[in-house]
Amino acid sequence: MKPIRVVVADDHGLVRSGLRALLASSGIDVAAEAKDGRELLASVREHRPDIALVDLSMPLLDGFEATRRIPFVSPETRVIVLSMHDDARYIDRAGRLGAWAYLTKDEAPERLADVIRRVARGDRLLEKPEDDVAEPLSPREREVLQLIAEGKKNAEIANVMNRSVHTVRNHRARLMRKLGVRTASQLVATADARGLICLRAPGRPT
Amino acid sequence: MSIRVAIVDDHRLVREGLTKVLGAEEGIEMVGECGLGAEVPSFVAELRPDVLLLDIALPDRDGLSLIEAVRERSPETRVLMLSMHSESEYAVAAVERGACGLVGKAASPDILVEAIRAVAAGSTLPVGEKLSPREREVLAAITAGLPNGEIAEKLGIRVKTVEGHCGRMMAKLDIHTRAGLVAHGRRIGL
Predict the structure, then answer these.
(1) For residue A29, what are the β-bridge partners?
(2) What is the CATH number of domain A139-193?
(3) What are phi and psi of B47, to 5 degrees?
């Protein structure tokens, strides 16, 4: 039987190499690693893995948006979200965007390997919710929102997204209107408070 | 002789993964793992590791507040903090409390191994500049969404001074927009 091939995406190098070592000892092959959502999409396009193991908080493009886009670049790749957030809103959202399973980093290594094998066999462990609520923000708006929160200026955002500065300005204006705020600072604070972006380190007071 | 290393991190996959990676390094022996801040004092007292890798953000305890307890229970143990964020603020705070340095989890395993060897040999890792108490006050106000005029009024300083604090914080933190400062302030819990 061919070994299961996985791409591991996480912005923390120490976490990636740890996962690679754990998976290798379970006979699961890590074809590539990615340190942000954009690198993940390129890597999935190139390697066509069976499984993409995706962290949620990643720079440039977060794990949610990467999850939504992976089927477009590699239809056979199934996404398993591996996050430190044990948050029902995140689990629900990951399911909505097409993830097959959601695990937290607290899991035992054996369970991770087991879930990877089950998903590779075709077991969907995360239901796609029927009651599809409307997403408040479009995918492009989310991308711009994340990049604003990363402290990037319009020109840099345009560069990362490969769009014009004019387009970025329009997205920014629409974001402010939708969230009912007037400054970029309020935008970041409101988006974080509503769980639209994940900023906060765990274990810190909110 | 091998360096005896123990690790404290609440995420089992991270802890066990690093144990595997570091255990494969020559000259490093992994002697124990712990996932709960409350158990750290007895854990180090029993194991007496040469180096303790200590996650800064444990759900039940602030990792920084455990450094002192570790040094009390096992004075010869060198503490190396691990953090999701490599911002210099955390590193300075950790060293001030008696740790030998901080390694961001974004680092490669090679960097971590090098840091373990350095602190085991008696070095302290270099750290960057810390925000001043006044800068933290200004950052808290920025994070709360106040414009510079109101911040100046609240703290009883001139608007120009507030602007100066903003500029210096941006330089120290390598952040270039006000929205970036807000994100940083929320991240560090201000």
Answers:
(1) A5
(2) 1.10.10.10
(3) -85, -30
Chain B nearest C-alpha distance from A148 (Å): 7
Cα diameter, chain B = 61
Task: Please state, in angstroms and rounded to a whole number, the distance separating the CA atoms of residues B15 and A200.
Answer: 21
What would be the CATH architecture of the domain defined by A5-121? 3-Layer(aba) Sandwich (3.40)
Contacts for B98 with CB less than 8 Å, ≥ 6 apart: B67, B68, B71, B79
Reported ipTM? 0.81
CB-based contact B187 A199, cutoff 8 Å: yes
Q: Which residues pair with B102 in a beta bridge?
A: B81
Residue of B166, B186, B190 to mutate, testing the A interface (most A Cβ within 10 Å of its Cβ): B186
Rounded Cα gap, residues A110 and B45, in angstroms: 30
Enter the pTM of the model.
0.82
Tens of pLDDT, residues B131-169: 889 999 999 999 999 999 999 999 999 999 999 999 999
- Residue B13 near chain A (CB below 8 Å): yes
Question: Any bridge partners for residue A193, and if so which?
Answer: none
CA dihedral in degrees (B80, B86, B90, B94; nearest 10)? 10
Domains plus CATH for chain B?
Answer: 3-120 (3.40.50.2300), 133-187 (1.10.10.10)
Q: In terms of Cα–Cα distance, which of B42, B58, B110, B53 is closest to B77?
A: B53
Cα angle A96-A102-A106, degrees, rounded to a multiple of 5: 150
